[in-house]
């Protein structure tokens, strides 16, 4: 009986005869692991960027809300001088003569003119 023992020190990778390429499986496995690690790192970097963009969007939304509140406050402050209360409390309008006793001059049969 002829028995051969496996000696890892003298083992070599199988050869593909058609292409004359020797495949070293250890290097192939190392390449697969390296590629997996690189893809995992790229995925984590992209995921981190996406999460950071979400925080940036929230900050921009808060800034937009603050600007809308500021615009509303400015609109209110601009509307106060033209409000009915502000117009009624104006001294120029308070000094106008009242319209209770007015006298009119008859110019023609149907036309009337205000007389001070």
Secondary structure: helix percent: 55-70%
Total domain units:
1
Order of strands, widest sheet = 1-2
Sketch the topology as an H/E string, one letter per element.
EEHHHEE
What oligomeric state do the depicted chains represent? Answer: single chain
Low-confidence region ranges: none
User: Structural class, please?
Assistant: mainly alpha
- Based on Cα principal axes, name the global outline: rod-shaped
- Terminal CA distance: 143 Å
Determine Rg (CA atoms, Å). Answer: 46 Å
How would a textbook summarize the main sheet?
2 strands, antiparallel
What percentage of the residues does DSSP assign to strands (E)? 5-15%
Number of helical runs? 3
Overall number of strands = 4
Please tell me the overall pLDDT. 78
Written overview of the protein:
This protein has helices at 25-79, 84-88, 91-94; strands spanning 15-16, 21-22, 103-106, 112-115. The protein is 55% helix and 10% strand. The protein has one domain (8-97). The chain is rod-shaped and about 145 Å long. The strands form two sheets. Strands 1-2 form a two-stranded antiparallel sheet. Strands 3-4 form a two-stranded antiparallel sheet. With 116 residues, the protein is mainly alpha-helical.
Quick summary of this structure?
By secondary structure, the protein is mainly α. It contains three helices and four strands.
SSE diagram, text form:
Blueprint: E1 15-16, E2 21-22, H1 25-79, H2 84-88, H3 91-94, E3 103-106, E4 112-115
Antiparallel strand pairs: 1-2, 3-4
């Amino acid at each position: 009986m002829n028995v051969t023992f496996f000696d890892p020190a003298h083992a070599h990778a199988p050869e593909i005869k058609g292409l004359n390429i020797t495949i070293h499986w250890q290097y192939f496995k190392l390449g697969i692991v390296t590629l997996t690690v690189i893809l995992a790192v790229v995925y984590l970097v992209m995921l981190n960027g996406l999460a950071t963009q979400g925080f940036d969007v929230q900050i921009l939304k808060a800034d937009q809300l603050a600007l809308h509140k500021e615009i509303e406050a400015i609109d209110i402050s601009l509307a106060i001088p033209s409000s009915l209360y502000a117009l009624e409390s104006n001294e120029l309008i308070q000094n106008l003569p009242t319209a209770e006793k007015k006298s009119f001059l008859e110019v023609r049969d149907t036309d009337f003119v205000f007389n001070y």
